[in-house]
Amino acid sequence: MANQFASWLDWLQRQPLLLTLIASSLLLAVAWLANWLVKHILVRGLYKALSTTELGRQTRFQDHGVIRRLANVVPALILSIGVELVPGLPKALVTVVHNVSNALIVLAIVLALSALLDVANTLYLRRRDAHLRPIKGYLQVLKIAAFAIATVLMIAILVDRSPLILLSGLGAMAAVLMLIFQHTLLSVVASVQISSNDILRVGDWVEMPALNADGDVIDIALHTVKVQNWDKTITCIPTKRFISDPFKNWRGMHESGGRRIKRSLYLDQDSVRFIDAAQIEQLRHFTLLRDYLSGKRAELDEWNRQLLVQGAAPLNQLRLTNLGTFRAYVENYLRHDPYIRQDMTLLVRQLAPTATGLPLELYCFTATTVWADYERIQADIFDHLLAILPEFGLRVFQYPSGADLREWRLPAAERRER
User: Does the first or last residue of the chain, that is N or C, have fewer Cβ atoms within 10 Å of its Cβ?
Assistant: First the structure.
């Protein structure tokens, strides 16, 4: 048997082309088998082992492919070493296979490093304060640096030259590189400023009218910030725009626990008038007005008494108005509303009269920042105020509608009947 094997080897050595073909095929088969064994047995075994640990359950390494990408080093390493052992191959071909294999090793390592950075980001996002200081932009900078270094090394390996020679040539290309990567450099600076100055966080409600963005920040990356608008569309905004362009961040409103109501009732100025004693007694039935009417009436009586002592004419006397009384009612109503923050600014004020009426503005803060609750509280307040206005003899201002015009066209007697 040994003699037969030796004679077969002797015959094979006399056929150099066939020997080279068999050795090359054997090398490729060993590389393929090693790749199959590593990925289907070793890698799966490692994933199963990691899935039993807390780290593996938190990160799910198999989703990022760190080990799977690193496993590509094995077949490339076998080809790099084994090609030297294949007899009869031209030296140029051996050099090419050797260099390409080494370049693939570098590529596999940098891809695994990129996936490892994704794992680091996943672990960091599990922290409670991760949205305050996102690191995704910094990790992307590391990825860019890693791929840049890997590109230089791969080119140096493929051309069989020292990486230092290539790096020395990059100095002359600095201006070109800065032009090519200007957006990346600006994004890096913007990301650092956003993070260090706490300008933006994931989960913030931002408003940027210039780009029609109005919604929650769902992702902060190196080049873009994703904003999910309230209509569920997603706007991608360059990170540098949050440094150069004005925008509104509603985070302060959420952190304060109160959301501002700033809305006006537009009153018909013709309905503003003095109220007499009978109307004052009628308004005393409002619990919210009892203290106000008692104190105000005592103040006015004292003022008017002094005017009479001085011999002033009765027309100089001060009297209550329905508008002032209504303003006091609204303020007391808000003071007793459990859904309004009493420790924040609370105002009921008149603004300058306009062609659309006299604005009576409510300026206060709700005790919640939830959008639906905020709208409900605001609507309940104005529902009540609009309904109670006639009790004070006031009317809201609105432009004539079609129904008003039809009413005016009716005869006076028919209008009175209606």
Answer: N
Q: By C-alpha distance, which of 294, 366, 292, 300 is closest to 332?
A: 292
How far apart are the C-alpha atoms of 389 and 392, rounded to whole Å? 6
Measured distance CA(220)–CA(191) in Å, rounded: 9
Q: Residue 339 and residue 368: Cα distance in Å, rounded? A: 8
User: Going by DSSP bridges, is the β-strand pair 260-267/358-365 parallel, antiparallel, or unpaired?
Assistant: antiparallel
Please, are residues 69 and 111 in contact by the beta-carbon 8 Å criterion? yes
Of the candidates 328, 235, 343, 325, the one whose C-alpha atom is nearest the C-alpha of residue 280 is: 325
Q: Are 357 and 396 in contact (CB under 8 A)?
A: yes
Q: Which residues fall within 8 angstroms of residue 138, CB to CB, at 6 or more apart? A: 191, 195
* Residue 201 and residue 191 in contact, taking contact as beta carbons nearer than 8 Å: no
pLDDT at residue 263, rounded to an integer: 94
* Six-digit token string for 37: 């064994």
**In this predicted model, what pLDDT tens digit does every residue of 82-97 receive, in sequence order?**
777 777 677 777 778 7
C-alpha pair distances (Å), 300 with each of 220, 317, 320, 392, 393: 62, 8, 8, 19, 21
Place of tokens 């090793």: 105
**Region for residue 108 given its phi and psi (left: phi exceeds 0; alpha: psi -120 to 50; beta: otherwise):** alpha
Per the CB < 8 A criterion, the answer to whether 226 and 217 are in contact is yes
Instruction: Provide CB contacts within 8 A for 207, sequence distance 6+.
Output: 213, 214, 247, 248, 250
- Interval 63-81: pLDDT, tens: 566 777 777 788 888 877 7
Residue type, 253: M
* Residue whose C-alpha is closest to residue 68's, from 40, 100, 90: 40
Residue 9 near residue 15 (C-beta atoms within 8 A): no
Q: Which residue has the tokens 């005017």?
A: 307
Element (H, E) at 6: helix 2-13
Using CB atoms within 10 A of its CB, is residue 406 exposed (0-12), middle (13-18) or buried (19+)? exposed
Distance in angstroms (rounded) separating the CA atoms of residues 45 and 64: 16
Q: Which amino acid is at 143?
A: K
**Quick one: tokens of 322?**
């329905």
**Token pair belonging to 292:** 């106000």
Is residue 345 helix, strand or coil? coil
